[in-house]
Amino acid sequence: MKQKLRMGMIGGGIGAFIGGVHRIAAALDGEIELVCGAFSSDPEKSAASGADLGLPADRVYGSFEEMVDIENKRAPEQRMQFVSIVTPNHMHAAPAKLALQNGFHVICDKPLAFNLDEALELEKAVQQTGLLFALTHNYTGYPMVKQARQMIRHGELGEIRKIVVEYPQGWLSTNLESTGQKQAAWRTDPQRSGIAGAMGDIGTHAENLAEYITGLKITELCADISTFVPGRLLDDDGNVLLRFENGAKGILHASQISAGEENNLNIRVYGEKGGLEWHQMEPNTLLVKWLDKPSQVYRTGVGTLYPEAQACTRIPAGHPEGYLEAFATIYRNFARCIRARQEDRPPDPLDLDFPTVSDGLRGMQFIERVIASGNSTEKWLSI
Amino acid sequence: MKQKLRMGMIGGGIGAFIGGVHRIAAALDGEIELVCGAFSSDPEKSAASGADLGLPADRVYGSFEEMVDIENKRAPEQRMQFVSIVTPNHMHAAPAKLALQNGFHVICDKPLAFNLDEALELEKAVQQTGLLFALTHNYTGYPMVKQARQMIRHGELGEIRKIVVEYPQGWLSTNLESTGQKQAAWRTDPQRSGIAGAMGDIGTHAENLAEYITGLKITELCADISTFVPGRLLDDDGNVLLRFENGAKGILHASQISAGEENNLNIRVYGEKGGLEWHQMEPNTLLVKWLDKPSQVYRTGVGTLYPEAQACTRIPAGHPEGYLEAFATIYRNFARCIRARQEDRPPDPLDLDFPTVSDGLRGMQFIERVIASGNSTEKWLSI
Amino acid sequence: MKQKLRMGMIGGGIGAFIGGVHRIAAALDGEIELVCGAFSSDPEKSAASGADLGLPADRVYGSFEEMVDIENKRAPEQRMQFVSIVTPNHMHAAPAKLALQNGFHVICDKPLAFNLDEALELEKAVQQTGLLFALTHNYTGYPMVKQARQMIRHGELGEIRKIVVEYPQGWLSTNLESTGQKQAAWRTDPQRSGIAGAMGDIGTHAENLAEYITGLKITELCADISTFVPGRLLDDDGNVLLRFENGAKGILHASQISAGEENNLNIRVYGEKGGLEWHQMEPNTLLVKWLDKPSQVYRTGVGTLYPEAQACTRIPAGHPEGYLEAFATIYRNFARCIRARQEDRPPDPLDLDFPTVSDGLRGMQFIERVIASGNSTEKWLSI
Amino acid sequence: MKQKLRMGMIGGGIGAFIGGVHRIAAALDGEIELVCGAFSSDPEKSAASGADLGLPADRVYGSFEEMVDIENKRAPEQRMQFVSIVTPNHMHAAPAKLALQNGFHVICDKPLAFNLDEALELEKAVQQTGLLFALTHNYTGYPMVKQARQMIRHGELGEIRKIVVEYPQGWLSTNLESTGQKQAAWRTDPQRSGIAGAMGDIGTHAENLAEYITGLKITELCADISTFVPGRLLDDDGNVLLRFENGAKGILHASQISAGEENNLNIRVYGEKGGLEWHQMEPNTLLVKWLDKPSQVYRTGVGTLYPEAQACTRIPAGHPEGYLEAFATIYRNFARCIRARQEDRPPDPLDLDFPTVSDGLRGMQFIERVIASGNSTEKWLSI
Fold first, then answer.
1. Contact D9, C59 (CB under 8 A)
2. Does A46 score more than 60 pLDDT?
3. Phi-psi region of C292 (alpha: psi -120 to 50; beta: other; left: phi over 0)
4. Which of the four, A200, B267, C180, D300, has the lowest number of CB atoms within 10 Å?
5. Burial class (CB in 10 A: 0-12, 13-18, 19+), C281
6. Of C136, C164, C180, which residue is a domain's last?
C-alpha cells in the first residue's frame, strides 16, 4: 500500500497567503499529508491555525525548534518526513538548517534566504547532509514553461540572441504597508525581506524563469532600481539590462507599481530560427514564432509535447490548469524523489525537475548584484 | 478540532479520467478525505485502484452494494459520510438510490442518469430522504461565472434579449471509439451513455450554464442533430435554436467534431443595457460590454466583485485558478452544507450554491427534448 | 501613359456613411478618379456635395437620369466609364439598369436590390448588356478571407462538416431611428430597406462570407427572426440553422441588438482534418486549427500565402490593413477588369475575384427565404 | 470649389515600399493630388515610374533639382504646392532644403536626416522660410494613440512613473542585405542610413511614440547596442534604460532580429492611478488599467473619446482602420494647414497635430546619443 508522505509546516498560520497555497499544492496530487506544524512564532496563533486545519493538538507546535525536537522523537512511521518553510525571508535559513541537521528534507519558499551569507550556509548544509532541498520557484512548474525549455534545449529556435522577461504587478502602487496589510508589510520591511523589495520578491522569479527556460546564465547586468512610493523603504521597480554567457542580450524588469497589472510574469526568447512567448496569466498557451512561417500556438495537452511537459499535465487539453497545479508539480516531484530515496531506488529523471538550493543561491546572487548595480555608476556588474 | 469529511467513491478506477478529477477536487481544499471506494465492477481492478490510492484493503470494495452495506455497519465516526459517483451514465442511478436509501449524501457526475425515468426516480429519492445531492456541473464553479450570474440577477445588463452558448470540441473528429480509447468508447455507446452522445456529454453543460448564468428557463427549442463520423452510433454535433421564458432568443451548439477545438465552452449574453462574454478556456476573465462605452474586463480577484464570486476565489488576482479549482468549489460547498447539517445549523447561503438533483432533472429533460427535436419535422418543441 | 478610370457616383451626398467609404476605396489604389456624381435626389444637396468634393459644377447632377443622359453625350475620353451606386436599397435597381442600358459598367452597394424581382431583372440586364457588374460584399476583399477560401478549395481542411458564421452589432439596441439618425432611419424603414432589417443589412454579408469561404451553397434553412426594440418595423435579430449542399451543417446569426458589439462579423469552419477561424475586427489574422497539433496563426504578409491573398496585400506584415483596404480591393479588381476589356485582353484571373450580380441575386434569395422561414411553422425551407 | 492640393514626390520609384505608402496616404482622403515627381536619381527609372503612375511625361523629372526648378516656373495654379520626400535617409536634407528655399512646403519620411548636423540645418531652414514641414512619424496618427496622449495630458493616470516601449521586428534575422533585397540593403548601409541601423529605422519611432504619448522628454539613457548578424555593418538590436524629465523610469528596446515578430511596436505607460497599453498591430484597441477596478477596453469610435481621437477616425467602430489610415492622417493634417495658410486663416488646432522638424531633430539627437551610449562605459548619458 502506497502511503502518503508526512509533511510538517513552518509558518503559514491563519491570514497568511502563501501558507495556504503550499498546503493546497501539497494536497492536490494525493501524495502528501500535512501531519504537524509550527504555524506561528506565537504559540496561541499556531494552535488556532492547527485546529482550524484539523490537526490533533499534540502535532501543533509553538516553535519550529520544538517541532523538530519532538517530531524527531516520534516513531519513524509516524514522524514527519519533510518540512515546508513558508515564513518571511528572514526566517528561512534557521529552520531550514535545523531541519536538515536533524535529518528532515526541506522544501522552502523563495527567495532562499535573507542574504547571500545565509544562502551560502544553506547550500553547505544541503551538501553536508545530502538531503533533498526544493525551492518553490513555482512558475517553472507549468507545462508550457517546461515545453519552452525543452524546445530551446533541443535547438528548435537555434542559438539564442535575445531574452525579454517581465514581471509587472501594481498592488504596491500606494503605500499599502502603512495600512497594516500583512503581505505588504513584511515585503517592504528591510528587517524581514532583506536588501531588496520587488527585485527580491518577484525579480528573482523573473531571473529564475529566464535562466530555467533558456538554460543560459546571466553574466553581466546593468540596473536602474527605483522606489516610487513615498515612505517606502525598499525598491518597488527595477529595469535591468542583461548579458548572457553565450552573448545573448536581454532585458528584465520587475515592478510592483505598474498600476493595473495583476501578476503579469511573461517571457519572450528569440533565437536564430524563431522565438517563443509565454504569459503566466494565460499559462497553458505557448506562442512559437518562426521566420516567415505562420506562428504556432502550443497548448497544454495538445499534440506531441516533450515528456517534461506531459509529466506535469493532469487533465485533458482545454481544461485549464493554473497556478496551484504548477505549484503542486514542485511538491509532487520533490515528494517522489523522497519516496525514491526511501525505496532505495534512483528517482525518475523527470521527477528531478524542481528548483534546488543552487537555484536559490543563484537568486540571492542576483539580488545582491542587481541592488549593487542600482547603486553604482559603473555600467556593467558581473554576476 | 475540525475533522475532514469522509468520502467513499464509486467508479473512477485506474485509467478513468473523471475519477481522478473528482479526487483532486475533493482533496484540494483540505475539507474532505477519501476513506473508501468501489472503484470498478471488477473486484480485482477495484482492489488495485484502492491500493494505488493508499487506501487500506478493507476499505476497498468489489461493488457499490458491498460498500454501502459494509460501511453502514462501521462505527459512525469511521463510516463514510457521503458517496461520490463517477461511473458512466448508465451506472449513476442505481448506486445513487442505494446510497440515499442508506442515509448517505451523494455527489454525482453529470448527466444525472441514463434516461428521464431514472432521473425522476432519483429526484423522488432525494425528496423522500431529505439528503443532500450535488451534481458536478463544474463549470458553474468558476468565480467569473458566478459574477456573471449576479450581474444579471442585479439587473446590470437590463432585460436579457439574446444568449449564445457554445461547446465545441474536436476530439471525436475521427472514429476514436474503434481504437479502444476508453473515454470515447462509453460516451458513444447507447448502452452506457443513453440516447445522446455530444448533446448529453457536453450539450447539457451548455444548457446548464445558460440557465445558471441568466436565471432564465428555456421554454422551446428547435434542433438539428447530426452524426458525422461514419459508424458512430450517437450524435457528435448539434445546433439548436432556443427560446427563453422572458422572450429572449438563443442559440446553443455543441460538437465533438469541431476539429482543432479543445474544450471551448463559452457564452455570450446580451441585455438591453449591455452584454457579457465568458470563455471556459480563459476562465478568469469576464468581458462586459456596454452601449457606446468602453468594455470592461472583469477579472477574478480584481476590484469589488459579488460575494458569490469572491467566495470561490482562493488566491490573489493574476494567479490563475482553473478547472480543478472550479470543480473543487462544488465539492467544497457540498461538504460545507453536510457539515452544517451535522452541526445542526443552517448552511451559509453562499455554500448552497451548487447544482442539485433538480438541475440534473432539467438536463435530462433537455437531452430528451433536443434529441426528439432532432428527429422531428415540427419546428418548435416545448421543454 | 496609364490613365485613371473615370467614375460617376449615384448617392453618397454629405452625411452619408457608405458614400465616403466608396470614395476612399475607389481612390486608394490610384487607379480610379471621381469625375461626376448625382449625390442626392435633391439637386441642391447634390450640388453642395459635389462642390465639397472639388468637382466642377457641370459634372454634378440633380438626378441619376440626368447624369447618365449628359455623360453619355460627352466625348469618350472625358465621359465617365462606370457608375458607383451607394443609395439605400430601394434606389439600386433603377439607376443600375439605366446605367447598364446606356453602356456603363456598374459597381453597387449591397444588398443588390429592394426585392427579389428587381434582383432578377438586374441579373437579366447584366446578361443582356454583357457589361461588368460588381457588388460590394467588401468583406471578401480581406487577404485572410481569400487565404481561408483557398485553403478550403485546396482541401487543406478535408471535407467541410460545420460552419458557424456570426454578425453581431449592438448599435440598434435602442430606437435610434426615432432620433433622426440617418443610417438607422432608412435601414429600419420597409419602404427603403425592403422586407428585412438586420438580415438584409448584415445577414447577407454573413451568408455571402460563408458561401465565399467554403465554396458551398446553403440548401436549407430554419430561422427564428425577431424584433426586440419596441416600435421597430423590421427585424433586428435573427438566428438561423443552415444545411449545405455537401451535408455540412451550420449556424448563422446576425443581430443589431447585441449590446456592446461593434461590427463583429466572424466565421469558423470545421472540416475533417482541421478548422479555421476569422474575425473581421482583427482581419489580418487567420487561426488554423488541427487535429492534435498546435494551431497556426496565419497573418497577412507572413510566409507563403496563396496568390489570391498576396494579390490584395499592399504593405508588409504587421502594418495592419483594414476595412477600407478590403473595400478598395473590390474596386481595384473591378477597375482592372474594365481596363482589360478596354484594352481588349482577358483579365488577370486574380482580378476576376469580386462579387457579381449572381452573388447579389443569391443574397436576395437568402433574404426572401430567411424572412419566410421566420414567419413559417415549417421547420426547413429550401433555398 | 475646393481644389486638391498639388504634391510633387521625390523618390519612391518602382519597387520602393515607402513611396507607395506615401502615395496611398496622400490620396486616401481626397484632398491631395500627385502632380509630378522625381522618382529616382536614374532619369529612366523616374520616367518609367511616372508613366506607371499615370503622370504626363513633362511632370516627371530626372532629378529633384530639375523638378524644383521647372515647377517653380509653372503657373501658380498648376505648380506643385508641396514636396513629399521618400528617399533613403542620406537623401532627405538636400531636397528638403532646396524645396524650402524655393517656397515649397515639405513632408519628409523619418528619420529627419543622415546625421545631427543636417538635422540642425534643416531646422534652421524651416525657421528661416517659415514654411510648413511635416515628418511622417506615422504611428502618432492612430486614433488610440491620440486618445492615450490626451488621457495622460488630462491627468487620468496621475503622475507618470514608468514607460515601456518596444519595437521588435524579425525581418533582418538573416543577412538579407546580401541577397540584394532593396529595403534591407540601404537600411544596413552606413553610407545611406547613417550611424544607426535598427535604432534609426525603428528605435526613433519608439522614442517618438513614448514622448508623444506621455508628453515627457527623455533626459538620460543607458544603452546596450548589438549587431547579431555576421557581416552586418549597423546595429540590429538595442536595449535602452530611460529616465524622463519628471523622474519616470523607462525601457526602450528595438530589434530587427527578434525572429518571428512582424512590426510589433507597442507601449505601456503606468501612472499613479492607472496604466495604459497600446499595440500597433491591433491599433484600434487601447487597454486602460486601473488600481483594483476592472480594466477598460477603449476602442476607436466607441463612446466619448477626446476630439483629437475622433478627428482622425473615418468610419464607424468595428470597421478597422489601419496603418495607411494613420499615415493618411499625417498627410491630411499637413494638407489642411497648408490650405489654411493659403486661405490666410489660422488652422484648426486639431490639424496642427502632426510631427514637425523639431520632432525630427529630437529623433536625430536620440540616435546620436543612443549609439554613443552603446559605445560608452559610462552608465548614463544625458540627451
1. no
2. yes
3. left
4. C180
5. buried
6. C136
The CATH number that applies at residue A366 is 3.30.360.10
Burial (0-12, 13-18, 19+ Cβ within 10 Å), A349: exposed
Per DSSP, helices labelled H in B194-231 are: 198, 204-214
How many Cα atoms within 13 Å fall on the side-chain side of residue B29? 24
Question: Which three-class secondary structure state does DSSP give residue C325?
Answer: helix
- CATH code (residue D32): 3.40.50.720
Length of chain C measured in residues = 383
Using the Cβ of A288 and the Cβ atoms of chain C, whether some distance falls under 8 Å is answered with yes
Put simply, whether D4 touches B (Cβ < 8 Å) is no
- Does residue C285 belong to any structural domain of this protein? yes
Residues contacting residue B237 through CB under 8 Å, at least 6 positions apart: B198, B225, B226, B227, B228, B253, B254, B255, B256, B257, B258, C161, C162, C249
Q: What is the DSSP string of C197-229?
A: SHIIIIIHHHHHHHHHHH---EEEEEEEEE--S
Residue D83 has which C-alpha cell?
514636396
Q: Side chain identity at A98, as an amino acid letter?
A: L
Contact B7, B82 (CB under 8 A): yes
- Beta carbons within 10 angstroms of residue B153's beta carbon: 13
Question: Which tens digits make up the pLDDT trace of D105-160?
Answer: 999 999 999 999 999 999 999 999 999 999 999 999 999 999 999 999 999 999 99
Burial class (CB in 10 A: 0-12, 13-18, 19+), C191: exposed
Q: Give the closest of B294, B295, B303 to D293, CB-based.
A: B303
Instruction: Indicate the average pLDDT of chain A.
Output: 96
Domain presence at residue B267: yes
| D294 contacts in chain B (CB < 8 Å) | 288, 296-299, 302-303
E-strand stretches of chain A: 5-10, 32-38, 82-85, 105-108, 133-135, 160-168, 218-226, 237-244, 249-255, 266-271, 274-279, 285-290, 293-299, 381-382
* Chain B residues with beta carbon closer than 8 angstroms to that of D148: none
Domain count, chain B: 2
Q: Residue D76 corresponds to which amino acid?
A: P
B298 has a chain D CB within 8 A of its CB: yes
CA distance A287 to C294: 10
Using a CB-CB distance cutoff of 8 angstroms, which residues of chain B are in contact with residue D302?
292-294
With beta carbons less than 8 A apart as the criterion, state whether A68 and A94 touch.
no
CA atoms in the 13 A half-sphere facing the CB of D381: 19
With 0-12 / 13-18 / 19 or more C-beta atoms within 10 angstroms meaning exposed / middle / buried, residue B375 is: exposed
DSSP string, B129-183: H---EEE--GGGGSHHHHHHHHHHHTTTT-SEEEEEEEEE--TTSS-GGGGT-HH
Residue A38 confidence class, pLDDT cut points 50, 70, 90 = very high
Which SS3 state, helix, strand or coil, does residue D279 take?
Answer: strand
Residues of chain D predicted below pLDDT 70: 1
- Residue A297 has its nearest CB partner, among C297, C299, C302, at C297
Cβ-Cβ pairs closer than 8 A, C with D, add up to 126
pLDDT of D1: 55
* Contacts of B among chains (3+ CB pairs under 8 A): A, C, D
Which strands, in side-by-side order, build the sheet including A133-135? Answer: A32-38, A5-10, A82-85, A105-108, A133-135
- pLDDT score, position A17: 83
Alpha carbon distance D300, C324 (integer Å): 15
Same domain, A144 and A118: no
Look at residue D14 in the predicted model and tell me its pLDDT.
84
> Does B149 share its domain with B286?
yes
Q: Are residues B151 and B240 in the same domain?
A: yes
Record: contact B259-C274, CB cut-off 8 A: yes
Subunit contact C273:B257, Cβ cutoff 8 A: no
Amino acid identity, position A313: T
- CA atoms in the 13 A half-sphere facing the CB of C285: 16
